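Friendly challenge for the regulars: who can give me the structure tokens for this chain first? No prize, just bragging rights.
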Amino acid sequence: MSTASAFVPGFALSSTEGALVSIAIRVEPRHLESLLEALARLEFPINPQIYHDAEITFLHRDQLHRDQYEEPVATTLVEFPAYHRRLDDVYLALEAQGFDRDSVLITSMLDQLESASLSEPAGQKPSWTVRTRYRMPAPKH
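First reply, four minutes later:
Bragging rights claimed.
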């Protein structure tokens, strides 16, 4: 089984289990409990951060005209760190509960720590990236 195509091989933070990465999973609020149950079945401890008012950006590409545009979308986002060697375990647990690999974004933990907003996703550009996360409810304007 292959690992995510959205992986930055930045080895500044690594161990014998590989590079430390940040795993972000976008989920519909009604499926959040199922996602957390899937993650609870992993054989390594995780401490997920849940962002109910996150915003991701879908990157749409028209190969014929070589156009690209971005579509910001509000979502619930679950994030946690893990080592690269554990990615297949995460994917298997998610797929066992019916979650799609396309709902997962893997980035270098060093990039995650250096940036409040992930503007450059890893590897072969996935179809979405994280724009903002809120630990508190989003400010009302």
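The chain has one domain: 14-132. The CA atoms of residues 63 and 115 lie 30 Å apart. Your move, everyone else.
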